[in-house]
Design goal:
With 404 residues, the chain is α/β, with parallel strands linked by helices. The protein is built from 14 helices and 14 strands. The chain has an eight-stranded mixed β-sheet, with helices on both faces. A six-stranded parallel β-sheet has the order 11-10-9-12-13-14, sandwiched between helices. The longest helix has 17 residues. The chain is globular and about 70 Å long. The N and C termini lie close together (12 Å). The relative contact order is 0.13.
Amino acid sequence: MTGDGPRRRLHRVTVASRLFSPEVAAAAFRLRALADAFADAGLAVDVVTTTPPGTPPGCSPPITDGTLRVHRWPALRDDNGNIRGYLHYLSYDLPLAARLVCAPRPDLYVAEPPPTTGAVVRVVAGLRRRPYLYYAADIWSEAAGSAGAPAPLVALLRRLESWAMRGATRVLAVSEEVASRVDALGVDAARVTVVGNGVDTDLFKPDGPSASATEPYFVYTGTMSEWQGAEVFIEGLSAHRSRGSPGRAVFLGQGSELAALRDCAQRLAPGAVDFLGIQPPEVAASWLRGAAAALVSIRPGLGYDFARPTKIYAATACGTPVIFAGAGAARRLVTDDGLGWGVDHDPAAVAEAMDLALARVAEPDTPPSPEHLVRWTTQHASLWARANAAVAAILDTVAQTPAR
């Protein structure tokens, strides 16, 4: 929007996200970096979020965290501590509407998925005559379809997601692939900015302690849900070990497929797979540093092949190559940029990649080198650089918007 009226300037930003640091989640890291970048630009920042797992019942008073004010409120979580499922999302979104209406009016709102949160922010921003930004880190309607949700529910979610994005002054997309899907939702391409995605390279780095292990191992970090299909790594590990190789697998994180993965490991690779649950980022980094390779997968054919999981960047930032099982954007990234081995979502292909990864451990000069992986991550996937780029795009956009 342009015009001859006075231009808007930002002084206060409110970020609405169900996840925020210190939770161990890509969204929490990304939003923390964005909030810090806003603060570094001289803006007052309020974060409206949830209480982390393990917090005593009841709401928490606002906490000043550096230059941020973090406002927390309880939300429903599953047995693993996740806010995952429509009732869980609504347990955050419904109180969010009242929390935003009753709070001081900011100059800009920032909405993070799910689309229900974006819809709440759009309504409140309209009532309070303020612009809002939508951070498209994912396309939830496609994720729901890939998880096998009923077609009517997917269609409803798609309409809601489109509506939440189309009202935003600007939509930030984490990749070109996500941007193309935002465009398919009816958002004006001129209002979409690709800012990329990344990891905290101050935390995930080659320097630091490595996990101690008596045998070489591969490490899987993060969510274990239907669309990852992480069982392919246990099946591949079984084939890898059947050839006399000593490799093991370590899984860090949680998800809806965790119980099935435990059963698979017990059947196919008893005693060779460790499930360590959610670990602090520092611990995850130590496991990544010592691994022969990091394991990343997307089950193909579910409409989710456009994703580029941030766990790829966490591994390469530590100087560790990646075995990616699947198709699409992430496989091209790993293969074309020399980040490891991109293979089919197939146990035999995974086993061969594991063989190559262990051979690389024995021959340190075999590519990809740790130096290449770290350098590539610094140049292409620094979370702080992405956050600063996002804030620059936002400030430029809002400066061109007449004040109301």
